[in-house]
Here is the input.
Amino acid sequence: MKPSHIEHIGIAVTNLEDSIRLYEKVFGLKCYNIEEVKDQKVRTAFFMVGQTKIELLESTDPEGPISKFIENRGPGIHHIAFAVDYLDAELKHAEKEGVKLIDKNPRKGAEGLDIAFLHPRSTGGVLIELCEHKSE
Amino acid sequence: MKPSHIEHIGIAVTNLEDSIRLYEKVFGLKCYNIEEVKDQKVRTAFFMVGQTKIELLESTDPEGPISKFIENRGPGIHHIAFAVDYLDAELKHAEKEGVKLIDKNPRKGAEGLDIAFLHPRSTGGVLIELCEHKSE
Here is the structure.
């Protein structure tokens, strides 16, 4: 594997609009997209910082993963996503190296990207997402 | 404020050497620097992913902030750092916008950069560091 860049940083928030205001007002970032990802039970808001997106995640369901995360640990940084050229191959490589996969096969994430999550138990407590994002 | 990029992502680890092996073997990254930051009671290891560094943090003191973090939440993502052009001015701006500062004045961080932390209580539970890093 050789990720080309950090595709995004996912941040669990309790209120999307309040958090958008924070990132716009304090950090001078511009929210360029708000999108619901039904599969993950979240509404997301996106900002660009250099090569990397900040992805704010508000739960749409008290049983969803972001609700559970906030219940256990409070709002805060939820995951980081590496951009990789070939997701299928990288999942196979990670599994061969002993990493437990949450998603054995790619699925569609926000912004139409193919994504998969690795289990934090095998990556030192860090929830890592891989996003297919062919480098130019 | 307008951060130019994500300068680094700080990750709390229990064992630096084990974690270096993980990032090298699974993710194909190359550790290019190991450094002790006495002020923060950590040993750090650095990897580049595009514009952004991954900074692994191992505590050197059971009373240090990384030990406390791991005690409370387990190992995992600890903070994100935005690169800004003028740290002094940005700290004043953040404070004016109601952000509580951990560091009222810049101090020296890893790799000789001037840095300051914002309090997660005023940034939605996210520990945010600002690093002075003049854009070219």
User: Anything to note?
Assistant: The helical segments of chain B are 16-25, 65-73, 87-96. Residues 16-25 of chain B form the longest helix (10 residues). The first strand of chain B starts at residue 5 and ends at 13.
